[in-house]
Amino acid sequence: MTSPGNSAHPPGPKREWLGIEQLTNPLGRLIREKQRHGDIVYFPNPRAPAWLLTHPDHAQHVLADNATNYISLAGTRPNPLLGKGLFAAPHGDSWLRQRRLVQPVFHRPRLARMVEGMAGDVQVMAERWASHVGTGEPVELLSEMRRLVVGMLGTSVFSSNMYESNATLRAALDYFTQDIHGPHDSVAMLLAEILTSILGMPIRGSRSKRFLAAVEQVNTIFYGLIAERRQAPAGKDDILAMLLEARDTQGVALTDTEVRDELVSLYVGGHESTAVALTWTAYELALNPDVQRRVRDELTTVLGGQPPTFESLQNLPYTRAVVDETLRVHPPAWQLVRRAEREDQLAGWTVQPRTLMVVSPYLLHRHPDFWKEPERFLPERFLPGQKEGRHRYAYLPFGAGQRQCVGNGYTLTLLTVALATLLPRYELRLAPDYRLVPMSGSTHRPRNGVLATLTRAG
């Protein structure tokens, strides 16, 4: 990396960060500028310059060591959909209270009780896939995984696959998926958040009647479920029950609005990145038949044809390594943005207040000083004994610091359960004419999904 010398800021391009290329090929530009300028890249802007950070030391400084100076852009404006749940709430005492109340939902004993329901939902999808076996007719995996994950979340959150059983909720969720995570998605939504925070400009489309109508549909359903459960709380052991039972250090429970916001954050806000991660995992298995065969052999040995349990999942090191390596190569959350509150020093340069610090897990996961052959898909690098000594901040699929994803353990469990249920039954291959077109918008994902053919696993 270039020495600070007499420069007022790190090296970087002359063009502003908030330019048209951020809307058309944002990740491509970050990759190119990192190659040209090093581990810190400065993007000029009169009101809000941005620094791209791709070294683990710098990510650690911003996300952990001096995190109080670098705030998330979440909560800089009202969010009609997510409200003030953990995904969208600004950092502070209120957010920390919520975090402490929600975190026990994902402790190991409770995760263990969710595995059976997860496996049941995957089995339903596996039965639906049976008609495709041996026909050569491809399955589009991204749409299938979205349907699967939102169903699995429904079972965990509500003890019911709400997506399949409630047509109104299904229509609202499909709208959010198609509008926010469709093939024409870009980082426009992120830029809108930034522009609103810094320039006071309105967010495109957030006030549309269709959007607000879909939010109202979700509200009606969720508040109804909360009211029903408060009146008859017995007999349920799901996330909704846990949220209703939670108490802070003063013995105060979550309000209906707070419960609603956490439910939306977990169920609506959380399903897309998980579905994308599962799609990427299936893609890599279809692309790497030797890896797929090794996973299947491990599943046969450990599970012996039985459904996975939380205990048996702990004995699948290679299957879990495939999940970890997929999240390294294809992190759905490909960039994390923080804003400097006060002046700071980083790598010899002065960070001015209101500077945007862009930490890119996609680029961190490919830093050649920390990853051998970073572009290769090598699950072995995550096997026991191989990952010890690695820089803690070289691998950030779920972020880091206090705002690290609270559901990371749940997500890893869900992904592993899905593989453990599907692969003993089906062998995946990419469709002959399929060509991957990756995109990086609200998530890093295949723009047009993934087409795969199915045969019976032998």
Write the SSE topology.
Blueprint: H1 21-24, H2 26-37, E1 40-43, E2 50-53, H3 56-65, E3 70-72, H4 93-102, H5 108-129, E4 139-140, H6 141-158, H7 162-165, H8 167-180, H9 188-199, H10 209-231, H11 239-245, H12 256-269, H13 271-287, H14 289-303, H15 310-313, H16 317-329, E5 336-340, E6 344-346, E7 349-351, E8 356-359, H17 361-364, H18 408-422, E9 426-430, E10 438-440, E11 444-446, E12 451-456
Parallel strand pairs: 2-8
Antiparallel strand pairs: 1-2, 3-5, 4-12, 5-8, 6-7, 9-12, 10-11
What is the total number of structural domains?
1
Q: What is the percent of helical residues?
A: 40-55%
Contiguous runs where pLDDT drops below 50 for at least 5 residues: 196-207
Task: Count the beta strands.
Answer: 12
- Which outline best applies? globular
Give the CATH H-level superfamily: Cytochrome P450
Helix/strand-derived category reads alpha+beta
Rg from Cα: 22 Å
Strand content: 5-15%
- The chain-level mean pLDDT equals 88
First CA to last CA: what distance?
A: 51 Å
Please describe the structure with a list of short key phrases separated by commas or semicolons.
3-stranded antiparallel beta sheet, Cytochrome p450, 18 helices, alpha+beta
Compose a concise summary of this entry:
This protein is of the alpha+beta class and 458 residues long.
What does the model show?
- The protein is an alpha+beta fold and 458 residues long.
- It has one domain (21-456): Cytochrome p450.
- 48% of the residues lie in helices and 10% in strands.
- The strands form four sheets. The protein has a five-stranded mixed sheet, sandwiched between helices. Strands 4-12-9 form a three-stranded antiparallel sheet. It has a two-stranded antiparallel ribbon with strand order 6-7.
- A hairpin with a 6-residue loop joins strand 1 (40-43) and strand 2.
- Helix 10 (209-231) crosses helix 12 and helix 16 crosses helix 18.
- It is globular.
- The relative contact order is 0.17.
- Residues 196-207 have low confidence and may be disordered.
